[in-house]
Request: fold
Amino acid sequence: MTLLKMEEITKVFPGVRANDKVSFDLQAGEIHALVGENGAGKTTLMKILYGLQHPDSGTIYLRDEPVAIRNPRDAINQGIGMVHQHFMLVPPFTVLENIVLGMETHTAGVLHMEEPARSIKNIMEQNGLLVDLDTRIEDLPVGLQQRVEILKILYRGAEILVFDEPTAVLTPQEVDELFKTFRMMTEQGKGIIFISHKLDEVLEIADRITVIRRGQVIKTLLQEEATKPLIAELMVGKPVLLMVEKPEARPGTKVLEVRNLRQTGERGHATLSGVDLELHTGEIYGIAGVEGNGQSQLVQAITEPVKLDSGDILLEGESILSWGVRVRRDAGIGHIPEDRQRFGLLLPFSLADNIVLGQHHRAPFVKWGQLIDASKIREYAQETIRAYDIRTPSEMTPANALSGGNQQKVIVARELRFEPKVLVASQPTRGVDIGATEFIYTQLIAARQAGKAVLLISADLDEILNLSDRIGVMFKGRIIKEFTQEEATREQVGLYMTGEQSSG
Amino acid sequence: MAKIRIDKYRLLELAAPILGFLASIVVLLIIAALVGEPPGKAVAAILRFTVGTGARLATVFSVAIPLFLAGLAVAIAFRAGVFNIGAEGQYFIGGLVGALAGIYLPLPKAIHLPVVVLAAMAGGALWAAIPAILKVTKGIHEVISTIMFNNIAFALVNFLVNGPLSGRGAQSLEPQTRKILPTAVFGKLNSAFRAIGLNIPEHVYMDYSLIVAIVMGILVWFLLFRLRFGFEIRAVGVSLDVAKYSGIRVKQVQIGVFLISGALAGLIGLQEIFAIRGHYTFEIASGLGFDGIAIALIGRNSPVGVVFSAILFAFLKQAGYGLQLYTSVPNAIIYVITGLMILFIVVINEIVTRYIRALRKKEAA
Reply:
């Protein structure tokens, strides 16, 4: 029986087609995995299913009936449940209170807890989800909190269960337990949508796997035909959308050296397990890897002071570990951050202010160390806007009035104009339209020609393959393989990305 | 072209407080009518007590001086996203330290006056320093710690004025310090105003604290919009993440702004202590620090905005007395109206801000 069918769902946000005629279905008793890079459109599709967002076109069928899901309440009433990445639980409440919250059994306002407790115990047994009902959420480990989330949606009668990266917070043993529960639930005829970056887990548990890229369904695979390299290739996409003119590299001296960097994450697992890396002037070094293999932690370690277990980072031979962000920037480390809205721009501030941000404390923008020279700032901003073709009515327009592509241009322009020695570019083209993407590529290459060292981190394998002179593949907190651009093929890199091929 | 557009947005931004004010006045009149007073009579009472005579009008401005300083103190902290709920305590301690400098330091007038002002600022900053340090080193939220510090300040001042610093003499039964030396007493500016043709009666306090307020207003404006530290204050207030990313030393900014806020709060009591009473007591007007929160909010945390919202608050305070005196509308209604006004202005502000953002998006597209 088809539990759910989403047909030709399209959702457009300003500048991005988040979902472009996406069709997706779920059978009773099936685990259907949804994979794709961040920003590919998985989350949007699930938000539409859960009524958090409304499609511009397309139809949703539940058990072959077309339905309109206006809000999460509708979704819950129709038997759709979602376990979010971040739990929606009230920490000081007990497990039982959290489960019944929102649909309490009562007579004239007096709560009855015995009856719900009994039916919840039933659900627990059927699904292998044992938790003590009287414990407070704040006293439970993460794995058990997740069980409570699952119980919550099962108690509301969910038939279709959506799991958004459920294993990201779990230990391997907890993952095994979760998968047992998955199987018990599917045996009862429920359907599960499983979103994950971890291809091993997807292959282990999913009956079918749908790959989404840039808002479109690329392919739906059956478990038998799926292999890791195949999924990885589908995820990162068809070869070359953009070809960029790239003169021969003339790498020079070593500017940045990362030595045996090790870091333990909050949950006690290794996030960086011995990263070694050398970066030279006049080269672009690309880091390929499935997200969550330590790329973000590496970027952080280079750009800001963080806690490390061991290792060192040297800029022109000098250790930078004890330096604050300002000292690092002043010493010549530029950074295009992964999440531009959160880290890159002061949204209500003018473009002029945003363009000098990070250099605002130095001459010529301040005199005598403190006095702001507004006319110098505006002049510099106007030059920048002209040179980098930023589309804006004026340099005094607030940053939040600009399109995503133009916002990203502002950041790229800012980081390049302050003439860094090393530019760390983290997902520089994510969520940016084709025009701006091409512009950013051109600028990165121009920076390399000007003798800067560029460290490019991207989930888009084509981007890495096209731009980089050397490519390092990151897997489980380490660079397990380095390629030169000539020897790197999509297949080879893909194999290392999934850990199929171990270091050689 | 661009210039004209910006002016259009400015106008829209200004509309919010005016609309909020008018809406709350309408509510006031409705309440007056419900109490059985004809709206006309209520309006007349308010006008008579606020702008009826030159003296009344001057009183509104006089009352606005400490309110302005309170608003300014809270506003600058808000600018960096720091919630200084402790202006009240900082004002009590700052006032005390200033008064002590006024009582015990024998200095010539030209030096003594600036010294007491600086002493009051130092006292306020000192009282803000502990919550500031607790915030950046231990992550203790300033709302909690400053409220606690308000209570500690009251208790401390109460003890000191009754005990070691008591100067209760023949003059009064009320616990108070010794008298402030004549060299530190704030004189009146009424004669200076008369010189430029403004006749302010002697019983209205237009004293040196007005000069302090004006100087502080200009300094804060200059700091926020002309100095690098002000830029960093505003950047931290908009986004901690972006500020950190761009190399701003967020903790230093937070501590700095907290101290400045406390120093400004220390000045709130100048008028009452140095011009009106001539001694310090824990009976000085309470609640001004809390008024500062609302004043900063309505003034949109800008020094210029705070000028207007402080005058508005002073107007409302006086209007309340007018209502009480001339009508059967209780004075307390003014608190209701003030609250409503804040609510109206905040809501209208939000609507206008969204509208402007939409307009700008269209323009940039």
